[in-house]
Amino acid sequence: MKGVLFDLDGVIADTSVYHFQAWRKLIKDHFNRELPDELEVQTKGVSRADSLTAILNYLDIKVTDSEFNKMTEEKNDVFRELLANLTPANILPGISELISELKAHNVKLSLASASLNGPYILEKLELINTFDAIANPSKVAAGKPAPDIFIAAADAINLSPKECVGIEDSIAGIKAINSSGAFSVGVGNENELSEAYLLYPDTSKLSYEQIETAWKKHN
User: Fold this and answer.
1) pTM for this prediction
2) Is 9 a catalytic residue?
3) Which of 9, 29, 60, 65 is catalytic?
4) Among 2, 62, 82, 110, which one is least packed by beta carbons within 10 Å?
């Protein structure tokens, strides 16, 4: 195991809740409609544009391309406002310890997030210098569940996906890791993430030794 490809929202920090809060405010402001809790799973781990498409399809609302683009920008402004108070205290349990162990074993770290705010969030968490690379989601052809972002994240640290582990909390992300050829580690609900090769209920249980052993067996 030479590299670990990290998702961000729900893996490194729980910023996914802010995403949905921002979408809720946007839809309330524009259409005076409410978004149900169950819609959040469709916006988890995917790009801003794919999230808005899913929301508008659910609400059966059509907008012009220019309105669509303006809404994605507006949502991002709201999201960044919500992130303003983010600090290292928001790093999820177990992640700092896992990162320290990976660094001690010379494992490279690459960010494979659909969020264009990845660098900004890592700066707020004071992890920007800890990561060896950040894959740019705007440069990949297709978002999760396509494997593109994980292939790009592995390439950014000069590794093949087969030499890497990917850590995700969404089914779209797990599918993307598996399709890329990397070893998938899921964090979350067993029913939702059953396709993960290795599964943990939450980040506090992540273990370098267990992940390394499972990766070796898989390969």
Assistant:
1) 0.83
2) yes
3) 9
4) 62
